Amino acid sequence: GVVFPYEFVIRAFRKDISLWTHPRPGLDYYGGIDISKGVGGDYSVITIVAYDKPRVQLVYQWKSDRRRIKQVVKEVLRLHDIWHVTKWFIDSNTLGAMPLEELQDQLGSNTIDGIGFQIKDKAEMVANMEMLLGDHQNPCHIFIPYDMEELKHQFKFYTKQLSKDGTKLKYSHPDWEGEHDDELESLMLACLCAKSIPTIDLECYFVDPIW
Length: 211
Known about the structure:
alpha/beta; Nucleotidyltransferase, domain 5; 7 helices; globular
């Protein structure tokens, strides 16, 4: 079934914010890198969030449908110079293993974490996003520009389902043609910066976007 209730998702999309062209002072920046699998028009997506505990705000997104992993590495390095990202998180499954190694060489192993994208990893990413989205008792702590329609769509249709043989659980977009989860998974990777916030802290805040 659908993973994120849309009534909580839509609260995160705000008309009073937009993407940024450059970093603003006094904030930490984190990045998520989802590498294109090269099938079905999938994109490689880089997402940067500003983090001002406990708030996370999506401030920059880059995407490319080209299959060149070197291009993604080059773009991460370029963005790192501009945004001074505290930590990058990359999908290190299969195609992500090579850029992870190269980026660790260039940026240092403390600056980039590979996330295996096994079911356990995805379940943790989903739980973290659920915490940021909030619920009937807890406010939303993630903020996304309202006009990011593709991301809105990916939230709406991100599903948890059993494999065809009924033995494995998987999180992904529906199997319809033209459906993707690249923007959402890139954002969920970047949001791992907030994974350590205790839920009890969140109840203390009345939350507005960062900037």
